[in-house]
Amino acid sequence: MSAEASAHSQLKRKRRRTILPGELRIRIHEDFLELRKQGLSYNKIIKEIKRRYNVTIRKSTLSGWKNRKHSPYNGIRIPTLEFLKPSEDLAYIAGAIVGDGTVYKMSISAPRYDKFFVGLTVKDKEFAEEFGRRLAKVLGREPPIPRQNKYSLWVVEVQSRTLYELLKKPIDIERIRPYVEHCERCIAMFLRGFFDSEGYAHKDGEIGVVNTNYKMLEYVIYLLKKIGIETTSEKPILHHRAGRPFRDPKKTDKVYRARKDAYYVSVRMKSNLTFYEKVGFTIERKRKRLEEYLKRRGLLPNNSLTT
Ligand SMILES: [Zn+2]
């Protein structure tokens, strides 16, 4: 083969390689593992894959897979929404992100490609860790280690195009619905993520959430009801108007103005115990306040003597 022809065929191969969609790559990888088990040689595997998918895979790709140097997932074990299965972990992540998470895309130039991120910046370390643990389970990766930023807040973030697609803002309730409403536990974990993110528990027993997304709060009322938790109103209630000055706890000194109207939803006192049992908080300061209230009301055994 002339140098030119060889370069040409290399180019062709390269082109074909880059257009291979993630999902197909994964299917081929699974077939590869299966065919290896059957003891087929690389050449036979290449032929078989060509026969099945009309795709020519390179020997170097196969040996990379075998040595686990490369993964067909390119670091993305869940390459598309089709691979994402409903789970309590995913529901929790969705709730936390819908609450106050960050979901963004970063465009890299030359060669142009996009990076996709989902993450949280929060006060409570246990919240960041819980979020990271659940992310790891959903994505089949090592848990990301939360780092502290200059405002002493915990930042936990991962790259995932799939979660980006699912949770990008403005959030599409219809898109997340099958994952959120998969079962009662998934609903409860979505709500826990949301209340960890945006919720409060006051000393007097009031539990609620504040958010600027009216539709999302309507959905939260619907979900709470679905698992037997009543709210104080049928609709979200105005908390404050856009333009109200506030201090962003994430950027200490500056005074900001609220960009949007904010609304709140609060749980009826008689549903507090159900909320505690089914939903609960990961965040310790919120959970303790709720527990103390329930103990004072005699709704939880007061075991403070034994602990
Ligand atoms: Zn479920």
Features:
307 residues, alpha+beta, Endonuclease I-creI, 2 domains, 4-stranded antiparallel beta sheet, 12 helices, 16% strand, elongated, disordered N terminus, binds zinc ion
Spatial arrangement of strands, main beta sheet? 1-2-4-3
Identify low-pLDDT runs. Answer: 1-5, 10-19
CATH class of the largest domain: Alpha Beta
Q: Choose one word for the global shape.
A: elongated
Bound molecules: zinc ion
Q: Which structural class do you get from the secondary structure elements?
A: alpha+beta
Main beta sheet, described? 4 strands, antiparallel
Write the layout of secondary structure elements.
Layout: H1 3-19, H2 22-37, H3 42-53, H4 59-66, H5 88-100, E1 102-108, E2 113-122, H6 125-139, E3 147-148, E4 154-159, H7 161-167, H8 173-180, H9 184-198, E5 199-201, E6 207-211, H10 214-226, E7 237-240, E8 245-247, E9 255-257, E10 262-266, H11 272-278, H12 284-296
Antiparallel strand pairs: 1-2, 2-4, 3-4, 5-6, 6-10, 7-10, 8-9
Zinc ion binds next to helix 9.
Characterization of the model:
- The chain is α+β, with helices and mostly antiparallel strands.
- The protein folds into two domains: 3-66, no CATH class; 81-296, Homing endonucleases (Endonuclease I-creI).
- Helix content is 47%, strand content 16%.
- It contains twelve helices and ten strands.
- The chain has helices at 3-19, 22-37, 42-53, 59-66, 88-100, 125-139, 161-167, 173-180, 184-198, 214-226, 272-278, 284-296, and strands spanning 102-108, 113-122, 147-148, 154-159, 199-201, 207-211, 237-240, 245-247, 255-257, 262-266.
- The strands form three sheets. The protein has a four-stranded antiparallel sheet with strand order 1-2-4-3, covered by helices on one side. The protein has a four-stranded antiparallel sheet with strand order 5-6-10-7.
- A hairpin with a 5-residue loop joins β5 (199-201) and β6.
- The longest helix is centred in the N-terminal third of the chain and has 17 residues, at 3-19.
- The chain is elongated and about 70 Å long.
- The protein starts with a helix and ends in an 11-residue tail after the last helix.
- Residues 1-5 and 10-19 have low confidence and may be disordered.
- The structure holds zinc ion.
- Zinc ion binds next to α9.
- Zinc ion (ZN) binds at residues 86, 182-183, 185-186.
